[in-house]
Amino acid sequence: MEKQYPLETPLTWHPVYDGETPCSYIDEQVARLPLSYPSRRLFPHELDEQLAIGKRRSGYFFYNTRCPNCSACEATRLDVLRFELNATRRRIERRGQEVLTEEFAEPSVDQQRLALFNRHRSIRGLSRNDTLYNSDDFEGFLVNTTCPTTEISFRYQGQLVAVAIVDCGSDSLSAVYTYFDPDFSHLNLGTYAIIRQLRWAQSSHRRWLYLGLYVAQNKHLNYKGTYLPQMRRQQGNWVEIAKD
């Protein structure tokens, strides 16, 4: 059973690492991503607060970008009250709802998920080396968490074809990571997963859907710029972006 904390239990942050490393998003850039570990599991409203100051979660850790020579990474969020699907995304939603089923559960690891994750990374060129994730790697990245987190699994005729990991605040959802089967590209599974998270935010009366980091120079992250209007965190402030 998960340990429960009284609301008055103080939340403190423990630094883990704050060095400079080669950037994973832009070649020949230096990154600084301070990692910290919370003293306890975050309550939903505390997750909202961390997301609002531009932080992201990976496994047990939270981080933000403080790179010495670059500000290309911008936290991105959609205002659920204002964002509307365009005609293309409405078609993707209709097609997905016709053929896909979805299930909400706690994040987990098994051979089916691990194989799908590694296939997604390899075929879409998301790995900078040929090393496959093992169960421990996967668990450390997508199962371990220090805040309320949900897994949405999508199936086509019973076959697992996509998984979205979502952090859940009181007033926000945060798209942590989505992996999917490239053989089902005709279903636009990455886009469909975002649409379903948007619908979830709407139905649960949340205000924000955080999409993670937007990086214009990175082909795997700049797609987020097509979800407009949106807000991006620039120089410590949220700025509305009406067109890319």
What does this structure look like?
It is a single chain. The chain is globular, with a radius of gyration of 18 Å. Helix 2 (87-99) crosses helix 5. The model has no long low-confidence stretch (mean pLDDT 94). Strands 8-9-10-11-12-7-13-14 form an eight-stranded mixed β-sheet, with helices on both faces. It has a four-stranded antiparallel β-sheet with strand order 1-4-6-5. The termini are far apart. The protein folds into two domains: 13-71, no CATH class; 84-205, Aminopeptidase. It is of the alpha+beta class and 244 residues long. Strand 11, helix 5 and strand 12 (208-214) form a beta-alpha-beta unit. It has helices at 44-52, 87-99, 111-123, 135-143, 189-203; strands spanning 13-17, 20-22, 30-32, 35-38, 56-58, 61-63, 74-79, 100-105, 149-156, 159-168, 172-180, 208-214, 230-234, 237-241. Helices cover 24% and strands 32% of the residues.
